[in-house]
Specification:
Helix content: over 70%
Strand content: under 5%
Distance between the termini: 41 Å
CATH topology: Farnesyl Diphosphate Synthase
Number of helices: 9
CATH superfamily: Farnesyl Diphosphate Synthase
Radius of gyration: 19 Å
Order of helices and strands: HHHHHHHHH
Largest sheet: none
């Protein structure tokens, strides 16, 4: 039967969810994480992992459902892409937390990273978190060649953008992150876009040679 919702955004989402076979577990996990943001709180390692999974990792998995809609995939390739999607989502979220440290703590009363204290952020903590982020980014990169070209360039662009943001955060004193939000100039973003197109095409050539 034809489904219709008077809210066109919800209608479009519903059509996409059905066509791309979104998993209920992913959607439920997302809304559970969003509900956690309704109240200010700190996280322990377990709740942090649950939050990152629901707020970011499942977004990567939902994107995969869209990218791969109608594509026959081996179990091995599915597992590779799912691990990459989750790792990239986790990296993006952790980078966001570092970038928005000042706003989250001062305006929203949130301290996301377990083991950290509001108003205090050390170089050691920053280095540890950045190392974790770089591990996630490296894990995600392994899966890029498996993505369809229509999605690959966009994913690479987003990844390079966040990788560049991570570099800038690493070069910024930890105390400064508690006071201001780090950003990337528009000119740098345009350079990243060009690099992404080149890298996406080169990976296509690699796939053809490896086929």
């Amino acid at each position: 039967s034809q489904h219709f919702h008077t809210d066109l955004v919800l209608h479009a989402y519903g059509e996409t969810a059905r066509r791309c076979n979104f998993q209920d577990e992913h959607v439920v996990a997302f809304f559970e994480s969003m509900r956690r943001d309704l109240s200010a709180q700190e996280h322990d390692p377990g709740s942090f992992q649950d939050y990152v999974y629901g707020s970011a990792e499942v977004i990567g998995l939902l994107c995969l459902s869209v990218f791969n809609q109608g594509r026959p995939l081996s179990k091995k390739r599915q597992n590779l892409m799912q691990e990459g999607a989750r790792s990239l989502g986790a990296a993006f979220q952790k980078i966001n937390f570092l970038r928005d440290l000042a706003e989250d703590q001062k305006e929203l009363g949130r301290t996301y990273f377990p083991g950290t204290t509001a108003g205090v952020f050390t170089e050691e903590e920053k280095s540890r978190l950045i190392a974790d982020i770089r591990t996630d980014l490296a894990t995600a990169e392994v899966a890029y060649p498996a993505l369809p070209i229509q999605a690959r360039v966009g994913v690479i662009a987003a990844s390079l953008l966040f990788e560049t943001l991570t570099d800038r955060i690493e070069q910024t004193p930890a105390a400064t992150l508690l006071e201001e939000r780090i950003s990337i100039p528009t000119s740098t973003k345009l350079t990243i876009l060009v690099r992404s197109i080149i890298k996406g095409i080169s990976l296509s050539s690699y796939r053809k040679r490896s086929a």
